[in-house]
Amino acid sequence: MEYEPKDDLNDFEKDLRQVMVRRPAPPSLKRKILARRSRQNTDRVRARMLIWQRLAASIVLVAVAGGAYLWHNAEQRRKGEEARQQVLTALRITSRALQQMNEQLADRNRTGE
Amino acid sequence: MARDWQPDFEQLVDEHQSMVFSLALRMTGDRGLAEEIAQDVFLALDQSLHKIESPLHALAWLRRVAMSRSADALRRRKVRAMDLWVEIDEHHGALAEETSSPLATRLEQLLATLPEAQRAALVLRYQEDLSPEEIAETLDAPLATVKSHLQRGLKLLRAKASCQLREYIRGV
Q1: Is the minimum CB–CB distance between A36 and chain B shorter than 8 Å?
Q2: pTM over 0.80
Q3: CB distance from A113 to chain B under 8 Å?
Q4: In this predicted complex, what is the ipTM?
Q5: Distance CA B148, CA B26 (A)
Q6: How many helices (H) and strands (E) in chain A?
Q7: Does the CB of A110 have a partner CB in chain B at under 8 Å?
Q8: Domains of chain B and any CATH numbers
């Protein structure tokens, strides 16, 4: 085998083109690519599921917290209303008692005359 | 807008694995790394498959991504190509001899000693038979720069071949 680098750049280019043919890929390359692709797809599905699960858990948590807040507010309102009714009843009773006393005093004044 | 061409991933792997692997191998000089890059490139293609519009688009996309991933890998490893080729000789010498002549292997070793930009331009020019305009597009570089890399790279490679291959032939 005799190699003499050509003086002419064009001839050297020809040599180079002949040398630089594509190398065959390793036989296992396609199998490895497909295996990694399948693994990646599985991971992606799993990651998506995890996101949905987290989202669902967050929604439930927000719903529970919101429900508890609303229930607490309603309970406070109910208790406030109950207290108001009790005060009104007490005022009504007091008012009636005062009215009765007034009437009795008025009767006594009338009979004393 | 409807597309007539529907990309088939497995078919694209079959058609282009040799091209992607060869680009990565000639850029990095490391067979294992080249295989890893080729895998990454095809997995990236799988993610971007919906953007691919035609077989030619797929080919250009694969070339561009293979070159940029190889450059990234070289930058990451910061290993000089010469050292890598020594490694290849030690670990994969038998395979290289199986697939190509000793002269071709030696010429590729010389190619690996060129600066990265010149090597990239030469690999695309002589392996992929691209025009300087296509190389500029693939490497996202100005046309004048690519032409300069091609010229300088070719001259440098020829000079190295003149010096070293005669000695190599004598040694065989």
Answers
A1: yes
A2: no
A3: no
A4: 0.77
A5: 20
A6: 2, 0
A7: no
A8: 1-79 (1.10.1740.10), 100-172 (1.10.10.10)
